Amino acid sequence: MTRNDKRPQSPHLQIYKLPLTAYVSIANRISGVINSVAVVILVWVIASAAGNPTDSSLALWLLNSWLGLLALFVFTFTLYFHMCNGIRHLFWDSGIGFELETATKTAKVSIAAAGVLTLITWIIASAS
Amino acid sequence: MSNFRTPLSQVKGHGSAKEGTGHFWMQRLTAIAMVPLVLWLCFSVASLPGMSQADIRAWLSAPFSAVLMIVLFLTGLYHAKLGLQVIIEDYVGNHGIRTIGIIAVTLLFALLAVLGVFSVMRIAFSA
Question: Chains A, B: CB contacts under 8 A, how many?
């Protein structure tokens, strides 16, 4: 029996070019995990502020470092992205937006909206 | 709030997968609640850099921010618990490790919710 190389192969994850919607789907899950970590840190920062009225806590020092600033910036983006994409999921739950074109368009919209919201938030917060 | 569970299923406490649509429904309900809370949180988070401990305490002493922070902790940590549970269920094949993982996440996030709520209340009531 000879091997037929002409047979179509089923797309394998490692050679299959994932569409944008697939990357956004994975990003939604990853951003959810990052947001979980963010809320845990938020509990820690506030618990630390509740237990220690002085400015000497590790949480506060970290919050005011460049690493803390970077983390807060990333967290606002992941929170906004998960929120925008979550709204997209809520539309899907009500049966709206399943067409391939619509789903690709709304994927782009949630990324763009998250970016814009992040920038607007930091511009307003640093101005006030 | 609509209740999508039948009276019998509520009494028995078992659905198709021991809880029926409970997980799905609570994930969506908390998701809707999180939309305005995330908007508020992000603006608050962006104002955090440069704050002293006294600034943070003064911020959380206001009834509005104290209440929103408590609601955010309860809703957000519950939503996170539900999401992390799904991730564990999807990726952890071993039944024993999966069960231990879900129990650990459930207990940890319940503890964090109590810690978060208690801390906000302590700041709010000691101001």
Answer: 117
Domain A20-127 has CATH 1.20.1300.10: yes
Interface test with B, best of A29, A34, A46 (most B CBs within 10 A): A46
Give the predicted TM-score (pTM) of the model.
0.87
Percentage of chain A beyond pLDDT 90 is 73
The pLDDT assigned to A53 comes to: 79
Show residues of chain A in contact with B116, CB under 8 Å. Answer: 42-43, 46-47
**Domain residues of chain A, as ranges?**
20-127
Span B24-126 CATH architecture: Up-down Bundle (1.20)
In tens, the pLDDT along B36-92 reads 999 999 999 999 888 899 999 999 999 999 999 999 999 999 999 999 999 999 999
Collect contacts of A51-59 with beta carbons under 8 A, ≥24 apart: A51/B119, A51/B122, A52/B53, A53/B53, A53/B54, A53/B57, A54/B53, A55/B52, A55/B53, A55/B54, A57/B53
